[in-house]
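ok trying again, last paste got cut off:
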Amino acid sequence: MLRPAEMVRLTVGVHAAGRNAMVAAMHEAGAVELRPVADEAQLRELVTPCRRSPAIPDIAGARSRLERAVEILTAITPEKNPVVALFSPPTDEKISFPVTDAASALEEAVRFSEITDTILALHTRDTAAAERLTRLEEEEGMLRLLLPFGIEPGRFGKAGLLEVRAGIILASECADIEAHLREGMPGLAVPFLLCGAGDRPATVVTITHPDASADADRVLRALAFREFAPETTEGTASAGITAIQAERNRLQQQQKEIHTSLEHLALTHLMPLEAMAEELRVMREREDASPLFGKTGSLTVMQGWAKTRDLPRIRALCDRSAGDLSFCTAAPATGTVPSAFDHPHWLAPYGFLTAMFGMPAYGKIDPTLFLAPVLVLTFGLMLGDAGYGILLFLIAALLLHGAGHTQGTTRDLAIVLCACGVAGTVSGLLMGSFFGNLPAFFGITLPFTVIEPLNDPLSLLLLALAIGIAHLNLGFVIAASEHLRCGERRQMLYSECTWFLLQPCAAVLILSFFGWATFSSLTTTLAWVGGVVAIIGILKDNGPLGFFSLTGYLGDWLSYTRILALALATGGIAMMINILSGMIMGIGPVFFIVGILFAVAGHAANLVLQCLGGFIHALRLQYVEFFGRFFDAGGRAFSPFAAQRTHTMPQEECDGR
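nice, full thing came through this time. structure:
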């Protein structure tokens, strides 16, 4: 618990007859981090690396089609309200497929070929219809611009001895386009112009002699002319628009029928398709692991890292999946060993907060045990309101029931927030705050009040500074114990013991200087001597930069005053909301509801603001002020070979049920 889990270097061998079952069992157990056998010098001479599985391209192709079908059905399915989805528990229904290896998985995927082809074909038709509708919209726009000219689109291009062109230019060119055309094509071109209003472009129709075609192109290109190329070649522009509208209605009806079909398919086939795609992903992961293994004759050898406490489970897994056809040996961990948390259930949810800063190096201190209680305590003091604490707890409990129902970071965060909500509630009761001073409006006095930050900020300030000095010294104690364990006594003397000496000496001198306490002359003299010795030790250890160590420590200590600042902010803003709400409700009966709505909205905003600020600042006290004393975040996270299943379950579990 105080250090990452003890690891061992695991070597597993299995006969070819039991290889698939062994790999599948390890994958589902998720207890071993595989490493290439070729990296182990002793095994490199005995085994040859296994080749890449030939089934990978087929799995990738089948999975790609299934995932594309799932994507299409998901897009057509109405989305849940994000708030409802966040607090609603996910479905626990899972599907199991009778697959044992890549070949059986591909055979199972064939069952979904027909429905996948249907979904992809419907989507292709839908895409084609959408593209055609876009083209029709462009066509209609061109024809509507031609209506004022009375020219049939079929006459564009060469028409006997003349060329007819139509298109648009920027509205800004409309003022002098006619002059440009007449100067560039005198006597051989006739322009017709309809300037657009506002940002609408100008429509231009030119009738030119073939001899002036090249000059017309030059002039029009200089004006950023975009020529019309309508599909309508017969009849008037008005008739073309009518035909377009008829075709649009037909395509829109076709799209509606396609969407209805896809919605029906999603109801019955979306979940099985998601499950099959996930099963293929799991199989792909197993096949991708093949080059990590080594082979000699009919024996396949695997190697990796595992937690010492998982060894009995792994050996039992080997016996169950391959029996006498396998062996499993473990050796002490050496080299670059990955780090894995070793937390009891009550502490495990806080591990992700440590990991956000960095994984502890293997064999070094894991600070999660110290982070958890101090984070909850400081957050509770910063929030300091029983009403907000209760609301935070209820929201976190709903989140735990919904999106946090399954293992993951969301679940861990929900559990941490539940603890923070309880801490905020207790602190609020001790600080006499329930939605600010709301009880006072009803003549109620909270019975457990000990400190009222708005009336007695000095007491809370002293408490914050006491927490800070204790927290910082806890970091020094941990660092000193690590130096002592590693035999680094000199480093401990200069890095920690000097601070243990300096702090009480500085306290005596400061209290004496300001007259806050009286000490004997001997005590004062010893304090001066001890302070000077400690400062000399700090300067000797850090050189001239030791001065900044002194100021930095003072700054770190004063950082804990943010506990008071946020507690005052929570109570002050809540009180202001209550006062303003009371003033609004006092205007008259009509404004009574307005005042209540203002109070609800104001307290909701204050809850979000203070919870966010409190959590960030409480976490900052850990990362900056505390971790910097001792934490070695140079570890590499343990990454086990594990099957991540959401929609499926292994065949063995299904059989066991």
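cool. Residues 1-50+293-340 form a domain with the Alpha-Beta Plaits fold (CATH 3.30.70.120). The mean pLDDT is 88.
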